[in-house]
From TrEMBL:
UniProt organism field: Malus domestica
Transmembrane segments: none
Biased composition (Polar residues): 32-47, 92-110
Disordered: region residues: 1-127
Protein name, entry field: Stress-induced protein KIN2-like
Domain of life: Eukaryota
Length: 127
């Protein structure tokens, strides 16, 4: 009987450890994916800003026509606004993914702990 109880306790601990390891791996993957998405969006934003700066530089090279000046400034403003919006969305998505994965990991850990406690209660080891 003691051998069976020890075996069940060992298996419960092993299951808890595996669940925690899996949760940790999922958190790492989610954080890596979120970081990658953030970096990709930052690169895209920087690229757009560089293009906007290029438009501003082209404006300087153009003649003093008011119409050309107006349109170049307008394009730069729109590009910067779009880049800023994309960065906000990327940061929000990354944060949301991180929080979702943290919640999932905590859920898995709680379930594993519940399973371990249930086995301990069933075997009388939780007294």
């Amino acid at each position: 009987m003691a051998d069976n109880s020890q075996k069940m306790s060992y298996q419960a601990g092993e299951a808890k450890g595996q669940a925690q390891e899996k949760a940790s791996g999922m958190m790492d993957k989610a954080n890596n994916a979120a970081q990658s998405a953030k970096e990709t969006m930052q690169d895209a934003g920087q690229n757009m800003q560089a293009k906007a700066q290029g438009a501003a530089d082209a404006k300087k090279m153009a003649d003093n026509s008011q119409k050309m000046s107006y349109h170049a400034g307008e394009a730069k403003g729109q590009a910067q606004e779009k880049a800023s919006g994309m960065m906000d969305k990327a940061n929000n998505a990354a944060q949301s993914a991180k929080e979702t994965m943290q919640d999932a990991g905590q859920n898995m850990q709680a379930k594993a702990q519940g399973a371990a406690d249930a086995v301990k209660n069933a075997t009388g080891m939780n007294k």
